[in-house]
Request: fold
Amino acid sequence: MKTAFSVLTAAALCVAGLEPASAGGLPDPLAELEVLDGGPTKDGTYMAALRITLPEGWKTYWRAPGDAGIPPSFTWRGSRNIGDIDITWPAPEVFDSSGLRTIGYHDQLVLPVEITPQNPAKPVRLKGQMEFGVCKDVCVPSQAGFDHRIDRDAGRNPAIAAAMASRPFSANEAGVTSASCRLSPTAEGFTVEAQIRMPSAGGSELAVIEPGVSGLYLAASHTERRGAVLLASAEFLNDGAEAVGLNRSALRITVLGQNHAVDIRGCTAG
Reply:
């Protein structure tokens, strides 16, 4: 089962100098959001998914969008009987456009959501709002509300199963033997330098480092392979709101390769 919503609004065009009047040629609808049911799990949770369907050739962003882009954000206000929500991100693609490298999905994104109810005997209502960007020749910040009562008798959903199967490998699954990080404070933030000993993920690899805390934004990054070791660095700048500290255990490094992606949680001192 699914519940579809087309209540998407283009808040503004994120292209410098582009006036709102020039948006007249945008597809209508710009995107569609559906809530999919995936049924109960053996652990007593329920599987669902948010599916964004885009016009042909359009893209949306991953949680770490790269050099430019709008990371998706969620509010779950209005949901009922939800104890916990766990999102699984399918492995994204890397796009190069006009000298900028962005990370996301083309045409469609199925985002699995595992829901732990507070009371297994009561109905579960998934309600809230998702904000995200969609891009082709222009980038448009968009938002959509959703309100869906989970079907506790639903069966396995192939779209959700496929999205779960396309998640990045864990460090253990990918054969990562070590991941160490050196953290260096700068005048405006932090620099993270990582050394990851792992087999190649295929082709030209990109390591995306996420700081695990709010208040920092990515200013620059670099990835290179030297034999069995992948070297990655990232510079994070403070947005100025308040002082921010980094914890190695909270760092998340995702290696995106031609063959597969790898999700590494935390790193040792190095």
The chain has two domains: 2-165, 169-269.
